[in-house]
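Quick one: V-type proton ATPase subunit a from Selaginella moellendorffii, structure tokens please.
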Amino acid sequence: MPKMHLFRSEDMTLVQLIIPVESAHGTLTHLAELGALQFKDLNPEKSPFQRTYANQVKRCDEMLRKLQYFSDQLQKSGLAPTPSAVESDLNFDELEVKINELEPEFREVNSNLEKLKRTRNELTEFLLVLDKAGAFFESARQNANSQQREDESISGGESIESPLLEREMQVEPSKKLKVGFIAGVIPKHKANQFERIIFRATRGNMFYKCVPLDERVSDPATGDQVEKVVFLVFFSGERSRTKILKICDAFGANRYPFPEETLKRRQMRIEVSARLSEMQTTLDVSSDHRETVLKTIGYQLELWLEMVLKDKYVYNALNMLSMDVTSKCLVGEAWSPLGALPRIQDTLRYATVETNSQVTTIFQVLHTKEAPPTYFQVNKFTSAFQEIVDAYGVGRYQEANPGVFTIVTFPFLFAVMFGDWGHGIVLLLATLWLLVNERRLGSQKLGDIMEMAFAGRYVLLLMSLFSIYTGFIYNEFFSVPFEIFGRSAYKCETPSCSESTTVGLVKYRDRPYAFGVDPVWHGSRSELPFLNSLKMKMSIILGVAQMLLGIVLSLFNAVYFAQPLDIWFQFIPQILFLSSLFGYLSFLIILKWITGSQADLYHVMIYMFLGPTDDLDGNQLFAGQKYFQLALLFIALISVPWMLLPKPLILRKQHLEKTQGEGYAGLEEHPDEEHEEFEFSEIFVHQLIHTIEFVLGAVSNTASYLRLWALSLAHAELSAVFYEKVLLLAWGYQNIFIILIGFIVFVCATVGVLLVMETLSAFLHALRLHWVEFMNKFYVGDGYKFQPLSFVNLGKEDES
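--- reply ---
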């Protein structure tokens, strides 16, 4: 019988490769392209710096650092790497030489460009100082001329055109006062504090004037666009000058020379403007040259990055191989799927020809007792479901995989809690958008939440389809029932029948509603008791069925691994215990539905334990029920010691027979065979814990499935509240504005609470039911995943 796909992991085998040193890199490169070998680390005692190819890994890291620098420069310049259609013909050494030549050249271009920008920004500020401060001097001179004309008779005809400081020379030497000034530029947010500090430092013996610039200017130090002001500080004395210069340096103010004479200012402005124009021309040429160099690098950058990453990946794999005593060959051990061996051998032969090696790689299969890795061939549809299982634990090698059943059971249990075909359609539309844009979204970098939703798009697809299915069963469309599958089997005889609890709804035809819940139940006072009973019993049936499936899968594991003790003393007592109690309860629920009996199942189950010999009276559903229950109770009681005692005792007996029969001759025949220590007390305690866990878990796990009932009820009631208390309430006002607001609130509440929060809640509860209630019946999950040497995994490892 062929093995079911996904039900058990692929057959794995351990292989050994003996590769000549000269062709090792090329051979592993071809094997990484194939992606069918997971190499074991044969040098665990060596640090990364002591390994054979440590220097090559360092060289790759250095090249990656330089390539990342180029990538950062492209990003800063607003240029995107443009993949070239032509493959690079450089080998690793040639690429290293080229990168080592490009990096210092490009850094020099960057450095020169930064110097030019700094000089350009300084000249721009200098020009602004000449304009703004010169305007202040001209204004002061004009004011002084007008004042002089008014006081001409008093001033004696002194011309204001003479330099301001020249008037000091006319004063007696003993009364001469040296007045100086400093001009510069400072950030606007520092100007007020700058003025206060200067005022305190000079004790008020200064005159401060600042003029804000009309536009932001580039700061020479940082290159950022900053709001600045031009300042002028007049002072007297050399000590004041020294203090002000220190304050300017502390505040990062840029000082510029400023001549007092008008003619010199005009001449200096012409010179600065000419230098600024020349500097801008030089800067434009340098920027064009830099952009050309960057574009040249951008054409090959992605190819170079891929090449270096692949080489580093291969060298890291080579470091896991051990060097033989002759230092001419590398010896490696790797796990491989059994079906991939022919392709591996073909790849090795091809690699030998490609690398022009005179010696072929030796490939042989090894026999070992070591546990192989677990490998499932998944596609984009099944991978998300397998990830749900692997998040609990990677399966032991070739144990039954719950991922096969999770494809159906997980979205179905979700839908039981989320059942509303209106909400299901909205969820389906969102999922279809993800599927239609699958190729575009798969090539983009998405956010964390969007990345999770996209990865589980096929899980969402089945969740939405099953939600529509269960929504039809519950007959709920945003909590509104519809007669889709025919007419109702009941009718109202009086207008007040919707308020009645037992009388009012009259069944007028024998044929029930074709599919799902009869719409007449919605809106009646008996809706909640009816749906409560239905969903609670349905939850118990689904839970018991899934737990029984888990126990049956433990039988498959025991048969596959040839463990007869687990069959006789684990599977049989477990299936009998669960079936005799909760399987019987499920049978009674179905029988009550079929017969329409009024029996109280709570009373039946409680007195099955408290009074097993009492008469059932009106709670009897079939003949001989009392004696049948006594038999089931006896089976459940006998199953507990059946699980607990025989297995540890038989294991102890087998161990004693094995140790007594070996003797010294047996030990000499198998000197390398490992003998595990046998501790009866540990085995017995482990079996005791396992028995108690199963017995108590049978009760608690069954009760845990009642969350299907609770969340389904909560979802339906929330949907009804939003519909009746928001949408219908707003509609009753007959006001278009209120109706529009009510509709917006209804949509936001439905999307935010029912389609986001409730989806997440139902998802997590379905996850818990699979991990705890279902998988713990058979799934060990202590294996490790098959992670082959493959360039496909290169991007994932780089991100992590």
